[in-house]
Amino acid sequence: MVSDCPISFSEETTISQEFSGSVEVGWRSIISGGASFAWNTGSVVSQSLSETVAVPTGETGHARYMPNFDATSGVVQRVTAQGTVLSETRVVGYSPQKEDGVATGTIYVEY
After folding, report:
1. Are 94 and 21 in contact (CB under 8 A)?
2. Using an 8 Å Cβ cutoff, are 90 and 27 in contact?
3. Quick check: pTM over 0.70?
């Protein structure tokens, strides 16, 4: 049996840039500077939702927020002065998307 259940949700959090693996601090500005989009280091999110959703009887629903990110990726190489490649690491950088100065994302209900 499914019944309608009113759910209200309000959240304020900070979404920050992220990098895969162990990207050294010095490389972060190079990665973000090479992105083909405007890079955001962080953004405050203030989201609210008031909905009536169908939740099966006996189940408990939870409102969740999933932020949107832009991503850029590449290969970081460590080379000697003579140009010999010592190591290669694939890295990915994630920047929170913004619209009108506010991070974007999706609020959904899971149960």
Report:
1. no
2. no
3. no
101 vs 86: CA distance, rounded Å: 41
**What 3 state SS string does 23-88 have?**
CCHHHHHHHHHCCCCCCCCEEEEEEEEEEEEEEECCCCCEEEEEECEEEEEEEEEEECCCCCEEEE
| Cβ neighbours around 43 below 10 Å, total | 20
Instruction: Answer yes or no: are the C-beta atoms of 42 and 15 closer than 8 Å.
Output: yes
Supply the pLDDT for residue 9.
66
Q: Is 21 helix (H, G, I), strand (E, B) or coil?
A: coil
List the chain residues with pLDDT less than 50. Answer: none
CA torsion angle 25 29 30 33 (round to 10): 160
pLDDT tens sequence across 57-77? 787 777 777 888 888 888 888
